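Predict the 3D structure for this chain.
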Amino acid sequence: MGEEDLEGEGSELAAQLPMMQNMLREFSTYSGFMNARILNRDGDAYIATDGHLPPMQEEQLEQATAAIQTKEPRFSPLRKTPQDLRWMSMSPSIPLTAARDDAPVGALMMTRQVSGKSRSCFQLHTLCQGRTHTAYAKVW
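Done. Predicted structure below.
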């Protein structure tokens, strides 16, 4: 494949990015996520639902890398922001045409706000300050 072929493929992909971003935005909204990013194997976001997402933290990059290497989804601990509690999921992106042993091409990182009922369970009472709380969720 020559350099000219690669430029042609790159321009075709670039032309599809707005549509891909809209599809990602619709999917994340429909699924109840606040925002999402599609990351390459190096952890660089090339599509995001919001143009102004903060840079990835080291822990997020580690989670995304682990999801890619293990081919298993990863979930972040709850993170408190001034507005709410949030968690992130990192899912490996594997092409439909990939063979069983092929490595993922990247990861899908999505952020979700913790619901009101769950949030009230996690709010720290003054007697519990400084303690770590662990929660488990059944996914079905």
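Confidence is low (pLDDT under 50) at residues 1-6, 124-129.
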